[in-house]
Fold this protein.
Amino acid sequence: MSQPVTESAVQAVIAAPKPSLFRERLADFFSSKRAVIGFALLLLLAFGSVFAHWLTPQNPYDLMQLDILDSRLPPGSANGAGTYNYWLGTDGQGRDLLSAILYGLRISLTVGVGSALIASIVGTMLGVLSAYAGGRVDSFLMRTVDLMLSFPSILIAMMILAYLGKGIGNVILTLVILEWAYYARTARGQALAERQKEYVEAAKSLNIPQWRIMLRHIMPNCLPPLIVIGTLQVARAITLEATMSFLGLGVPVTEPSLGLLIANGYQYMLSGQYWISLFPGVALLITIVALNLVGDRLREIFNPRRQR
Amino acid sequence: MTLWLIKRVLQALFIILLMTVIVFIGLHAVGNPIDILIGPDADQRDRARIIAQMGLDKPLWLQYFHFLGSAVQGDLGNSFVYNQPALQLVLHRLPATMELAMAALIIAIVVGVPLGLVAGLYSESIASRTIMTGSILGFSLPTFWVGLVLIMAFSVSLGWLPSSGRGQTVTLFGYQWSFLTLDGLRHMLLPAINLALFKVSLVIRLTYAGVQEVLPLDYIRFARAKGLSNLRVIGVHVLRNIMIPLVTVLGLEFGATIAGAVVTESIFSWPGAGKLILDSINGLDRPVILAYLVIIVCVFVTINLLVDIAYRLLDPRVRLEGAR
């Protein structure tokens, strides 16, 4: 009784039921067949792209390993030396497409995940700040969000990239500029609802500093919908990056993502060498669909109106 | 209402002005168009003369006010590359884009509404599930890749439809139109389908959600109880209520379609405004980029304004909220 209520004690109470809830959600997630397929595909793709160096028969960007005589071979052909097969064929420079796709996937995923991570951090902070500060700060930030969201992202991305120039870093920056608004709006709405709740009042009455309430108490409770948006935004970011690279405004030729691989194959398509463009496209497609499957399932799980 | 309208129009004008400032400053930092336009063998005097001729030697704020002054009179400067008025250049290309966007919109409605109705009315059936899963695909497939697959299938393999250009056109009101000739329609089909894909999915989702919301309501039950035929209940009572959100969303989507046409136009070599802006970005043709953006922003802001006004006129609840 005599012991004063400390912040850690309050947190212990809040944190206590968490593990079971987490486990329940996890079981819930994997109870859907589509989510399991999506998740497995994602793991496979991530594995393939991270360990591309060891998995592929050649490093597609080491010119010493390329043989120009092997260029534009159809899928399944053996290489000139007869040591391995080009399962998905080769492109105009004699590059093994499977290897190129795995290396390209690495760049696509880096851009997608990287931009989503940065945008979610920036967006969430601004959103929570907006909700907490209110007044002018709030209305300024939210007007900016409205403005950002009302213009088509392709147009804005084109303008920013025309301004910044090609490069992986620039593409990530562009995507962050485009996407923070989604997180900010959601985080603000969530934070507005949270700050009315009793635990915030309790924290205030314990004289905990404002920033700490914001970061440690309100922010964690805003996370679920942001995770959902994050997953879907990774897919959107990858699509947008591929589109920009396809238009010649995205990543440089030296670091081709899936979009650039597709663009490179475009010129051979009309002469019937479909595989150079088709297979990177299929890889892109699988990545995006897998992300969407997982994201959709997460949305279902975190939907508070859902009946269990 | 009048006061609200004035406020809203002023707001719209302010957004347009703001965009021109941002874009003007942004564009100024992108490369130096002189290097692209003048051959390396030009001497210093020629260089200075052309820079002065294009007004690039003046300070940026002066250039901006100069731009704004002529913009009000409908002059957005001359294209560096084509040496024509930029505004005219963009406006000349815009009908081709509009035509494509309209075709896409029509396809979206003609295909999307029936599919959405079927999915919503028989929500437990396999057909419904297939349609709804298909619509997820439509949302997530990258437009440019679908375009490539369409070309691969219908132009390269089957050889049914042409893959590029506008085909035969007819001049009407001073502009070229493809939709009036059979050849033009054949050329338009693939790009229009490509551009429509995302919107078809959107329409399916909206229709589905609308049907699900409306079906259990009392007035539908009452209509059925009155003994109206199923066709009439769905065709008149259900459909009419779905139309309001559908028209709103598609109206707002129209601006995005014109902007999104950049991708489709570049794949199918459709000579519209989107192709022009892409070429202009690569050629650093500042006046054309500016003119394109000003027009697009105007189209956007106007559509938003019209939708807002229509909403206030149609829905009394919004009007009440505004009056408070």
User: Anything to note?
Assistant: The longest strand of chain B covers residues 170-172. The interface with chain A takes residues 15, 23, 26-27, 29-30, 136-137, 139-145, 148-149, 151-152, 155-156, 163, 255-256, 259-260, 262-263, 266, 277-278, 281-282, 289, 293, 296-297, 300, 304 of chain B (CB under 8 Å). The two ends of chain B are 12 Å apart (CA to CA).
